[in-house]
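Morning F.,

Quick status update on the modeling queue. The single chain you submitted on Monday has been processed. Sequence for confirmation:
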Amino acid sequence: QAKDFCEAFAQAMATQAPERYVATMSKAKRDGVIFIDWLRNARGATSVSSWSLRARPGAGVAVPLRWEELGRIAAPDAFPMAKALQRAERLKQDPWEGMKQVKQVLPGS
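Structure tokens below.
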């Protein structure tokens, strides 16, 4: 149910604003737009956890961000390990604080 909802939501975003969003995994179709990855919502799907290293040269770190920070991030490798450590030391509050308390229910089909 969640995967179907997320796919429909991603497709709607891509239809409403194709200059900003795409719901297709193909890298050729994602250049310059945001991929709304609805595929992470299926049994067995994997994702990267916060503060984990990326399996790439330079071992960038997947750091949690606030919405208002997204526009300042230039690339997926924006946080090499040293910069991620500096960020962790500077944070006064967990960017995801309160997320466990967010309760949402998908409407029945």
